[in-house]
Design goal:
Layout (H helix, E strand, L loop, with lengths): L1 H16 L32 E3 L6 E7 L3 H4 E4 L2 E4 L7 H5 L5 E19 L2 E18 H9 L5 E3 L3 E18 L6 E27 L4 E12 L3 E8 L10 E9 L6 E14 L2 E15 L2 E5 L4 E5 L14 H10 L1 H5 L2 E6 L2 E4 L2 E10 L6 E11 L5 E13 L2 E10 L2 E12 L2 E7 L17 E10 L1
Length: 462
């Protein structure tokens, strides 16, 4: 469907945009003198004030999910081929896909951040943007592409995509509680300005395939809160003589103009408690909402059943109606199959922020205070795109101007290795690391695994 294509193109552009963006660097949660610890727990403060290098203060190249490139690409007779190649066995290909295959990232660009001591504690002022991108594809989607009509019914429900973009102005403050020795608390207040929101939900899609006809039972909604966005429509003329009347359906979409389309508010809350050689910390990030303005809604208006004989198949791979050709025909004309209706404009649409919970335990060696170990659990609560991870780290600061961290991660997206190096001399701070070390890459230097990060930042302490 053309609309779906354009929305997926928008999703892909935002995914590419993340290569110039920053997210929380979990490897730095326990690391001494890592400037941006307060973003993971607002109770954390720095020993010194700082000013970030504009845009370059906290950069991150990141990708996360369980849909990997090495699940899609194979080496067949010395050439790179898709998993749909007939020489790749069905069982082998499908074993690499999960029931729900996801990709996602929450990325931030810290345009400018300033930290300073005042008001009895530590404070930061930050201006930035956030993009929250998530997409999910069911296993049946890949089964359809691989098996063709051999499996006659495909359940492609839960094919979803969600993209949210907004700018933020954040004020953070943290301080020690003198009445409770060892306790430190902090909070961050965020004013949010909405750039755009896209929520695509394919609730139901049962496709019954035959050589002579297809039947599709669909239920879907798309909400687009984007300034200047409008759906294009066309007329569907049913084939045959079953008495169906022509009807209008959404055939595409266009964006004319650009502007803010929403406001919101969010808070981060955190606390840290020191007891002997241990530090216990807890934080809840991005508690809040976005109230979007004008929203264009497209829907099947409940469950619809559509039958068509527009797609027929031949077992001869060289025929004009071979499955590979008809599948391309289906992709180009799927709008007729789903037949979303333009339901008009909604005056408002409210969404909640994706909340992250962090729980940490930090143990400092009593006989060597420069070495300490940390265990961090991070869980991101985001509906169908919720994930969690545990990270065990060793952190060392052998000299005043240098600290480093190595860590192991295990969670929703498997097991990985991370590290962070942090140089903090007088007036200059540079950090470099990876929350998930990038593994094997293809000839085009694209990672075969969908999990990896590269963290980099320059700041000026004072």
């Amino acid at each position: 469907m053309k609309t779906i294509k354009k929305l997926l193109i928008l999703t892909s552009l935002i995914a590419a945009y993340q290569t110039l963006s920053a997210q929380n660097t979990y490897s730095g949660y326990f690391l001494d003198n890592y400037t941006y610890r307060y973003e993971m727990n607002p109770a954390f403060g720095n020993e010194k004030g700082f000013v970030s290098f504009p845009v370059l203060g906290n950069l991150n190249v990141a990708f996360r999910g369980n849909l990997h490139l090495n699940s899609l690409l194979y080496n067949v007779d010395g050439r790179t081929s898709l998993f749909t190649n007939p020489k790749v066995g069905v069982a082998e290909a499908m074993s690499k896909f999960s029931d729900r295959n996801t990709i996602g990232t929450t990325d931030k660009i810290d345009i400018l951040s300033v930290g300073f001591k005042a008001f009895g504690g530590y404070n930061t002022i930050s201006i930035g943007t956030t993009l929250d991108l998530n997409a999910s594809l069911p296993k049946a989607f890949f089964s359809l592409a691989k098996e063709g009509v051999t499996n006659k019914t495909y359940d492609i429900r839960n094919l979803n995509a969600k993209v949210t973009g907004y700018a933020s102005i954040a004020l953070n403050h943290s301080h020690d509680i003198k009445q409770v020795p060892g306790l430190r608390i902090g909070a961050t207040a965020k004013l949010l300005l909405g750039i755009g929101n896209l929520d695509m939900r394919l609730h139901e899609a049962d496709l019954t395939l035959g050589k002579d006809a297809w039947t599709a039972k669909t239920n879907a909604d798309i909400y687009a809160s984007i300034t200047g966005f409008k759906y294009d429509t066309d007329i569907y003329h049913p084939e045959g003589s079953n008495g169906e009347a022509p009807r209008e359906y959404v055939s595409g979409g266009n964006i004319d103009g650009f502007g803010l389309n929403g406001t919101g508010f969010g808070v981060d809350l955190g606390a840290e408690y020191k007891w002997r050689d241990f530090k216990f910390s807890i934080a809840a990030l991005d508690l809040g909402f976005m109230a979007w303005g004008k929203t264009q809604w497209a829907s099947t208006d409940g469950t619809q059943t559509i039958s068509t004989d527009a797609y027929t198949f031949s077992t001869n791979e060289d025929a004009d109606n071979a499955f590979k050709n008809e599948f391309k025909n289906l992709k180009d004309n799927a709008a007729k199959l789903y037949q979303l209706k333009d339901m008009g404009e909604k005056s408002s649409h409210t969404t909640t922020l994706a909340t992250t919970l962090n729980f940490g335990i930090n143990y400092e060696l009593p006989y060597y205070r420069k070495l300490h170990f940390g265990l961090l659990n991070s869980t991101r609560i985001n509906g169908d795109f919720t994930w969690t991870q545990f990270r065990l780290s060793a952190n060392i600061a052998p000299v005043k101007c240098f600290s480093a961290d190595i860590n192991m991660e295990a969670g929703t997206f498997g097991v990985g290795f991370g590290w962070l190096l942090n140089l903090h001399t007088t007036g200059f701070n540079l950090f470099l690391g990876m929350d998930r070390t990038i593994g094997k890459v293809c000839k085009q230097f694209v990672p075969l695994n969908s999990n990896g990060t590269l963290n980099f930042g320059i700041n000026f302490p004072f």
